[in-house]
Amino acid sequence: MWKYAAAFTVLALPISADATSASVKTVECYCTDKAGGRVELGENRCLNVGGRVFMARCEMSQNVPMWREAEGGCVTG
């Protein structure tokens, strides 16, 4: 029983995501549009996917940037 308690103690320690070494490179996260252009996190775009048109926001899902549906249709004007 005690050998498992030690494993849980190690797993419960906080992990820091900050880079403290000069050799660690920061990875920039962003989405891309249809033409491959950069779209920053939090920006909204009108997407046409498989004949379906909707507003989507560039967001993070775990450690991957992705498009998440924000509204049903696109605003025109």
Describe this entry's structure for a reader.
The protein has one helix and five strands. It is mostly beta strands and 77 residues long. The protein has a domain at 28-77: Complement Module, domain 1, CATH 2.10.70. The chain is elongated. It has a three-stranded antiparallel β-sheet, with no helix packed on it. A hairpin with a 2-residue loop joins strand 3 (44-49) and strand 4.
Topology:
Elements: H1 2-11, E1 31-32, E2 38-39, E3 44-49, E4 52-61, E5 64-71
Antiparallel strand pairs: 1-2, 3-4, 4-5
- Helix content bin: 10-25%
Mean model confidence by pLDDT = 76
Task: Fill in the CATH topology of the domain at 28-77.
Answer: Complement Module, domain 1
Instruction: Quickly name the level 1 CATH class of the domain at 28-77.
Output: Mainly Beta
Instruction: Tell me the number of helical segments per DSSP (H or I, 4 or more residues long).
Output: 1
> What coarse outline follows from CA principal-axis ratios?
elongated
- β-strand percent reads 35-45%
Structural class determined from secondary elements? mainly beta
Radius of gyration, whole Å: 20 Å
Q: How many strand units?
A: 5
The biggest beta sheet reads:
3 strands, antiparallel
